[in-house]
Design brief:
By secondary structure, the protein is an alpha+beta fold. Among the domains are: 48 residues, no CATH class; 29 residues; 112 residues, 3-Layer(aba) Sandwich (Endonuclease, Chain A). It is 44% helix and 8% strand. It has 11 helices and 6 strands. The strands form 2 sheets. The protein has a 4-stranded mixed sheet with strand order 3-4-5-6, sandwiched between helices. A two-stranded antiparallel ribbon has the order 1-2. Strand 1 and strand 2 form a beta hairpin. The longest helix has 15 residues. The C terminus is likely disordered.
Length: 278
């Protein structure tokens, strides 16, 4: 327990709520008045540490294409920190370097003769370690347990993947016109022949939608992905990121795709389309 230096009461943690509400003192002022006073007890620190075990940060795997990350980044832009805050951060990082190697702080003793000798020894040298690694990996992939463990690790990490901005835009369209009929499976929710589509119809139809990013899929032929999934009996619609600049055109492509691929399915009689939406 820690003791409030003003009222002498004991708490697990001295909070802004107690100081401001009871004594009319801000937490930052309390730390200035009583610089040696502890704010958290050992019991609280231990319980708080245990409560965070296994938790995943909300922004893990996200970049500034996610609107929440962008909003958080903007909130920090131009923000001024107190001198005490900066000094504390500086002290905490003294002697710490996450990328420092065994040679941190050492200077290179350049010896021209030695450099020339190393250069000659490497000239025309055939690199064979790459082939060795390739052979080892091929042998490992023949092991069923190794493959299952590898897939399990990939699936576990991919399960935290969230749709990027273009995928969110497509998801919004699907939820608006076809509620409860499409699911985002880009987080390894559905793997087909080793590939992971972005959206899958969950209403009993073998339909998929892929969102191709202009950067990541540059130079790719969407027909290859369509033909690949077709061998498993799935029809696929590929939407490019730049097409989303014209949402109405993309919405029409989705409606046309569903109309053509399910033309003879009576269960589509009551499906809502954009023209039916009030």
């Amino acid at each position: 327990m820690v003791k409030c230096e003003i009222c002498q009461k004991e708490f697990k943690r001295i909070t802004q709520f107690h100081l401001q509400g009871t004594h009319g003192v801000k937490l930052c002022d309390y730390k200035v008045i009583f610089p040696e006073a502890k704010l958290e007890s050992e019991e609280w620190l231990e319980s708080n540490s245990k409560s965070h075990i296994g938790q995943v940060a909300w922004n893990k795997g996200l970049d500034k294409s996610d609107p929440r990350v962008m909003q958080y980044a903007k909130s920090l832009t131009g923000r001024e920190f107190s001198q005490e805050h900066c000094q504390n951060i500086s002290k905490a990082k003294v002697g710490f370097c996450p990328i420092a190697g065994w040679n941190k702080g050492q200077k290179m003793d350049f010896n021209p003769a030695r450099a020339e000798a190393i250069s000659k020894s490497l000239k025309d040298r055939k690199i064979t370690w790459g082939d060795k690694i390739s052979r080892v990996k091929k042998e490992q992939l023949k092991n069923k347990e190794y493959v299952e463990r590898l897939i399990s690790n990939i699936t576990r990490h991919a399960s935290s993947v969230r749709p990027n901005l273009p995928e969110q835009m497509v998801m919004t369209m699907l939820n608006a016109f076809y509620p409860n009929e499409w699911q985002y499976v880009g987080n390894c929710g559905f793997v087909l022949g080793g590939l992971i589509p972005d959206f899958m119809n969950v209403n009993g139809r073998k339909l998929l939608i892929e969102v191709f990013g202009d950067y990541w899929h540059k130079g790719e032929n969407p027909q290859n992905r369509i033909d690949y999934f077709k061998q498993f009996g799935f029809s696929t619609l590929v939407i490019w990121e730049h097409e989303l600049k014209n949402p109405e055109s993309v919405e029409k492509r989705i409606v046309d795709f569903l109309s053509v691929e399910t033309l003879h399915e009576p269960s589509l009689a009551g499906m809502k389309t954009k023209s039916d939406t009030p």
